[in-house]
Amino acid sequence: GMYCAGTGLTSPSGICAGGYYCSGGSGAVDASVCESRTLPETIIAASCGGLCPSGSYCPAGSGAPVPCPAGLYCGSAGLSSPSGTCLAGYYCAGLNSSNSRAAVCPAGFYCPAGTVLPVKCPRGTYQPVIGASNVSACRACVAGFYCPYE
After folding, report:
1. What are phi and psi of 41, to 5 degrees?
2. How far apart are CA 26 and CA 6, in angstroms?
3. Which residues neighbour 16 within 8 Å (Cβ) at sequence distance 6 or greater?
4. Which of 27, 79, 101, 131 is in Cβ range 3.0-4.6 Å of 89 for a Cys bridge?
5. What are phi and psi of 57, to 5 degrees?
6. How far is CA 35 from CA 23, 54, 71, 103, 123, in A?
7. Model-level pTM?
8. Rounded distance between C-alpha atoms, residue 4 and residue 11, angstroms
9. Is 31 left (phi over 0), alpha (psi -120 to 50) or beta?
10. Tens digits of per-residue pLDDT, 71-86?
11. Count of alpha carbons within 13 Å of 69, Cβ hemisphere only?
12. d(CA 45, CA 149)
C-alpha cells in the first residue's frame, strides 16, 4: 500500500493513491513505475500494482484490490470505494459484482435495493413476475389455491 519514489530512502514516500494498489516495488503513487532493482525482470509489471480493476475498489493505501462486497457493485476500474448498492428488483449475491443489475429477482421473491439474496414472499402470498422490488408486489393467494411457502 506504499510506494518509494526515490533512492536512498529510509522510509516509504507515501501511500498509494485511491483507485490504485501498490503491492510491492512501486516507485509511484499510482504504481505506474516499478522499482526494477528489487524485483526479477519477469515479474516487475505484475508485481508492483496498478489501476484497481472493475468489480473491486482500492482505498488510498491499498496493497491489493478489495473485492466489491455482496449487495454492492463496483462498476468501473479505478474506484476508491464501491459505486453503490445493487438496484431494487435485482440482487448481487457474490463478491466482485461490476453490475448494479447482477441478477434479476425471480418470481416468488422480491429484492429491495442492496439485496444479497432474494427474499421469499410471505406465506399465503405469491408473486408471479420477475424483478419485484418490495413485499407489496406479493399478492394474497386467490380462492381455490393455497400458498404454503415462506
Report:
1. -50, -40
2. 10
3. 1, 2, 3, 22, 26, 29, 30, 31, 49, 58, 60, 61, 62, 63
4. 131
5. -140, 160
6. 12, 26, 38, 42, 62
7. 0.80
8. 8
9. left
10. 999 999 999 999 999 9
11. 7
12. 54
Question: What is d(CA 39, CA 35) in angstroms, rounded to the nearest whole number?
Answer: 7
* SS3 category, 91: strand
Q: Which residues contact 41 (CB under 8 A, 6 or more apart)?
A: none
Three-state DSSP at 100 gives coil
For 25, list phi and psi in degrees, rounded to 5: 85, 10
- Please identify which residue in the block is written with the cell numbers 516495488: 25
Alpha helices, DSSP H only, in 26-123?
A: 44-47
Q: What is the pLDDT of residues 22-48, one digit of tens each?
A: 988 888 999 888 876 555 555 544 578
Instruction: Name the strand (E) or helix (H) holding 15.
Output: strand 14-15
CA distance 26 to 59: 16
